[in-house]
Structure formats: C-alpha cells, structure tokens
Amino acid sequence: MRTKSAIASVFLGLAALPLLPAAYAESGSVILEARCHVEVQHSHQFGEQTIKYYEQICGITNAAGSGFMHKVSMFGPVWSEASDSATRLTGHNVIVDRDKDEIYLSLAREGVPPQESPGRWIITGGTGKYAGATGNGTYELIWLPAVVEDSFLNIAILKGQYRIP
Q: Per the structure, how many domains does the chain have?
C-alpha cells in the first residue's frame, strides 16, 4: 500500500507542475539609452491637426554596460498626431541583436508639448531567445538640435522591467 501511496504522491506532484508560476531565464530592471535618428517620411495637414509618419533607427546601450539589450539596433515606424492643444505619438519598433534575434517594442506618448511628456514602452514579443519576452516601462526624450529639415536626433532613456522565458 505504501508503494501505491508513494507513486500517487509523485504523480500528483508532477501533475501540479504546470500550475506553478513560470520560471524565467532572465528578468530584472533595466535602464537603456537609445540614440536615434528620426526622419519625417510623410506629413499631412488637416485644419489645426498635423499627422506625420516617421522612420527611425537607433543604437541602444544598457546603462549597466552589458546584458539585456546592450549594443543592439532598433528601427521602425512612428506616427504622431499634433494640434495646438494635444500631441499623441505611437510607434512599433524592432530591436535586433548581434545574433539576429528580435524583440518587438511598442511606444506611446501623449502631452503638450511632446518634448515634456513621458512615454510608455511595452515588449510585445520576439524571436529566437526573445520568444515570449515581456516587459514594460517609461521613457524620456532628450531632443538634440535639428540640423536638417524634417530630420532630427534624440536620446531616449528607457526605464522598466523585462522577462525572458
């Protein structure tokens, strides 16, 4: 009887494993610096409202000097909608590391003026070692002087949490 009881206990213990919280291969807090070149691709005026489509490319470093998202590139589209009373920005970017694995990142920001409003970011997925990655946080922008019309540079400081399965 003891053998059957021991086998039943082991079986029930193994059956409960999927109910345990998922263990992550890596997780933690992160502070990233993204140095970006942003170019206006299209701009449309509708009364007081301006809608712009941008393409951006960024180099990202981790403030820790190594680890998650250190020395990676980011690119993708960003849309802004601006009027005298409000600004809204959304973007969907792809981050690529040296192994060609990707992280998908969504950005959003609202406020007046846009230079003073904090943004939000969220990891929406990934490929390779980042498949199933999650994370989110905030970002602040530092605007650099424009040198070419419809093109500008900025530094985005991203702070938040991430998890890689």
A: 1
Strands 26-46 and 72-82: unpaired
Q: Is residue 3 part of a domain?
A: no
> 144 lies in which domain range?
20-164
Q: Which of 108, 121, 101 is nearest to 161 (CA)?
A: 121
**Other C-beta atoms lying within 10 Å of the C-beta of residue 76:** 18
**What are 63-120's pLDDT values in tens digits?**
999 999 999 999 999 988 887 777 888 999 999 999 999 999 999 988 765 556 689 9
The answer to whether residue 68 is domain-embedded is: yes
CA distance 57 to 100: 16
Dihedrals phi, psi of 115, to nearest 5 degrees: -65, -20
Helix ranges (H only) for the chain are: 2-15
- 28 domain residue, yes or no: yes
